[in-house]
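Session log. Operator J.P. requested a structure for one protein chain; no other inputs attached. Running the standard single-chain path with token output.
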Amino acid sequence: MQPAVERVVRPYRPEDSDACLAVFDRNVPTFFGASERPDFVRFLLHHAAQWHYCVVERCGEVVGCAGHSISLDGRTASLGWGMVDPALHGQGLGTKLLLARLDAVRLTPGVERIVLDTSQHTQGFYARFGFVATAVTPDGYGAGLDRWDMALEL
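Structure written below.
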């Protein structure tokens, strides 16, 4: 029997930026459009803290990242910029990141709903956790990359 691979979710630090950008780049063009990269760079520089951004490490290496924010009225949480190195899909890293965010949101009093937008390639992943589609925009992120708005009522 092989030993379990250590997977740790921890808060994002500025020195994680290059690793997160590398994960983003490996997810282009299937999961993100190349045109989204400048937005992600700005997010990491200016908004990661407000979004409770975190990373998942596998054997000490950042291999995924994701965050969440709470609306001003405190009733809605949004999930954003979630991604895992595609070479490691199917190993539970995305699930670990999502469950960490869901746990954090559920500990926030007053939150009634969690929303996110994703593509057709990952909407099924979120559906497994109870998220339902509220809108689908063909080519919403660019040619061949549809936008799926999804929600989970708490």
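Operator note: Helices lie at 17-26, 37-46, 93-106, 123-127.
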